[in-house]
Amino acid sequence: MNQNKIDEYGHIVDKEGNVIDEDGKVWEKDDRWFRIGLFELICGLDTDGEIKVPTFCKYSIGKPGDYCLENPCPHISACTVPRTLAYTNKYGYVEDSSSFDEGIYIEDDEIDERIEKLLKIWEDICIKNIDESYEEYIKDKLKDNLQGEV
Description:
This protein is of the alpha+beta class.
């Protein structure tokens, strides 16, 4: 008999209290873990004024943010944006479409060997570009710090 249970977040938890994620990875009970994900938030409030805007709504109707998730707003919905690159500002928001690639939406049943190979190339290019950008940033920051000391 399976002795796993589901916690309040929908995670599978084994009898020792370890969490098993959707990929089968076991996160031991004492592990500290979190996930970074990119989600598109959608404000479901209409603009006709019939629904009262929640008091925690910082930027008005149609501009959802972390405050919607923290409170939790009954008008918010979210969806993942798979295989997407984005640059966020200091608050963690994508400011405009020039800093956001729309991603590659492919249904699982559409993925064949060729598509899987192309997706792997896409993943490798993304990781390489992120690594190169980070290294360039650190190099420039170090150079600026050294010049500031002279």
